[in-house]
From TrEMBL:
The keyword Membrane applies. It comes from Lobosporangium transversale. InterPro entries: HAD-like_hydrolase_phosphatase (IPR050849), HAD-like_sf (IPR036412). PANTHER family: COLD TOLERANCE PROTEIN 1 (PTHR28181:SF1), UPF0655 PROTEIN YCR015C (PTHR28181). Residues 158-191, 362-420 are annotated as: Disordered. The chain crosses the membrane at residues 20-40. This is HAD-like domain-containing protein. Residues 362-373, 394-403, 410-419 have a biased composition (Basic and acidic residues). SUPFAM superfamilies: HAD-like. Keywords: Membrane, Transmembrane, Transmembrane helix.
Amino acid sequence: MTFLSFEERLKRRLCVGMNIHFVFILFYFFEFMATTLYRFTDAEGLVHLFENKHDKNLSSYLEVGDIHGCLHLNGIPSGRPSPIAITKSLLDFDHLVCDFDETITEHDTTSSFDTLANEIRPVHYADPQLSWSEILQAYLEDLDKVAVGDLCHLNASMSTSTPSSSSTSLNMDGQQQQQQQQQQQQQQPHRLLDPHIRELKCHVDGRTFTPEPETVVPKIPSLQPWIHSQMRKRAVEKVSLDRVYESGNLVGLTRAQIRAYGREKIRLRPGVVQFMKLFIEEQDRKERALKQELGDEGVPTVDSHGCRKRRGELWIVSVNWSQDLIRGAMDQIFGSEEATERYLPDSQLICSNLMFSYEDHQELQKRRREKGDNSGSEGTADVTTNNTNNTETKSQDQGRSGDEIADVDVADKRSKQDDAAEEEAYLSNGQVKVNCLTGTDKLRAFRKIQEEYASKYGLAPVETKWAYLGDSSTDLGCLVEADVGIIIGNSKSLLVECERSGVQVIDVHVKKPKIK
Ligand SMILES: *[C@@H]1O[C@H](CO)[C@@H](O)[C@H](O)[C@H]1NC(C)=O
Ligand SMILES: *[C@@H]1O[C@H](CO)[C@@H](O)[C@H](O)[C@H]1NC(C)=O
Ligand SMILES: *[C@@H]1O[C@H](CO)[C@@H](O)[C@H](O)[C@H]1NC(C)=O
Ligand SMILES: *[C@@H]1O[C@H](CO)[C@@H](O)[C@H](O)[C@H]1NC(C)=O
Ligand SMILES: *[C@@H]1O[C@H](CO)[C@@H](O)[C@H](O)[C@H]1NC(C)=O
């Protein structure tokens, strides 16, 4: 019976009639195996895991704490798994995809850009029309205002699926409940799958937005409510961005300034920093070993499973607005801009980004000159960088006071052209190029990464294993999608979302004092 219903579901999902049993086995495997996440409230635990993975005594460093949600039929055997038992599945990955805010960083203060902008915005620059806290307030009010039902395209699917009430009780009757859900689905197909949806426009307070560029089909059906919540958030997020643009809060920053801020002011989680270092060191080792094996650039080696071996890569997928801020933070980990470029090339950093444009550059330069005539513009850019000689010259200029005017002029002439050339490309115009707003965007990005990687190297999807490291409910889709999903920190909302979606979470703690 159960088999039949699964098959039915599969056929509908995959639109295939071929070798259904084979697909079924895969499906079954993914459906259950991948829905266990591990949670390290303390990122140091990850380091122990990595460093002591061959140590039979791992239990003296780590212990398994609470297990949230149901125990799966064929996943972890019932009872408490030992750290050694979970190590194998936890470290079974080639590539690492990470969230940024609060996963790699210690805090997410949404006011970070405000602080940054205030610090480095030229003093003579127009003050923002809306303060950051006003924007934040408006955002929160919007969030209250927008009911999921308001998102017109969600109407149909919301009325049928109410798994929030039932999925938490998916204990003994896992299969029964699956059937129940499936019946619901039969009665009313998910409108989310309708391609017309993406053409819809919705409105919040007269502002128009397109809810989703395209709809995401979740890996496990119980993730549907999460998808809805992310779409709702996405809508409000878009409206809120308009306010940020209007406020002019982000105008006039340079890329170098932002990067320096990331390098100097953003505090990272020491455990994650160490974990990432260990990861890239291991990949370097792997690469060296491969080189030796191959002589020089030979054909890729094929391991005993017929998989082509190569080094594992690092990606960051974030809803942050600035890639330069993230690069700056990563400079802290890798040690230099060159190393950051090597370990995290631009193509492996997926997030939104401030836009930098020429017109605003002219405007800014004009105002800077006007202002510069009657006062020294101190505080324009306290943050100096080693990026180029230009920026250093600039910040020297700014530090000079009236009695050094002659010098300034000389310096000005010398560097003006270079300055102009640099800033032309690098001054923010106050807008954000949106790549990633919420969890559904992240999920889409994560899938794209996997697909592109597989096609680039001609690999079948099963030939690579992906770990995802995240902290918040925007990460749930990716965490579930990954082969290994690791939660950092103790976000309550993420845990609630996991329980609501029937996703099991196993806590792993560092054993406090003991040996080391
Ligand atoms: C493993 O732990 C046991 C008891 O805790 C200890 O006697 C033994 O020396 C440890 N082995 C290693 C390799 O640390
Ligand atoms: C970007 O990252 C910083 C550092 O984690 C954080 O404080 C800030 O709130 C983030 N900005 C956005 C828009 O996510
Ligand atoms: C959404 O649902 C509400 C009430 O359930 C209804 O009034 C509204 O017309 C629906 N909107 C669309 C676009 O279906
Ligand atoms: C700038 O470079 C010098 C040496 O090249 C180094 O000592 C210094 O720490 C660097 N400063 C920053 C802020 O990176
Ligand atoms: C700075 O200028 C010196 C000489 O003018 C040059 O050798 C050096 O490469 C420059 N450094 C950067 C980072 O552009």
